[in-house]
Specification:
It is a single chain. This protein is of the alpha+beta class. It has one domain (6-81). It has helices at 21-25, 31-40; strands spanning 6-12, 43-49, 74-81. The chain has a 3-stranded antiparallel β-sheet with strand order 1-3-2, covered by helices on one side. The longest helix is centred in the middle third of the chain and has 10 residues, at 31-40. 16% of the residues are buried. It comes from Pseudoalteromonas denitrificans DSM 6059. This is Methyltransferase.
Length: 82
């Protein structure tokens, strides 16, 4: 029997280059960090979608701020274990 380990990540985009401050302060993450850490953990990115893309979101404010809550710019990544 063959098992394929699939891991889906949906998260709020942070401004590129914000490193590890954004997750703590804004509840967002630079999507490049996610890709890098998942690769280091032995996963391969097989699909990415932008169902929740919102270009009006500046990605610089906390996701729980009243005006942006539920309307943030988010990424969807599908990884498989290699």
């Amino acid at each position: 029997m063959l098992f394929i380990k699939v891991f889906i990540i949906i998260d709020h985009n942070a401004i590129k280059g914000t490193r590890f401050n954004a997750p703590n302060d804004l509840h967002r993450i630079d999507s490049d960090i996610v890709k890098k850490q998942m690769k280091q953990a032995g996963f391969k990115l097989v699909e990415e979608d932008f169902y929740f893309k919102n270009q009006k979101d500046t990605s610089g404010i906390n996701v729980f701020t009243k005006d942006i809550r539920g309307k943030t710019d988010r990424f969807v990544y599908k990884f498989v274990k290699i």
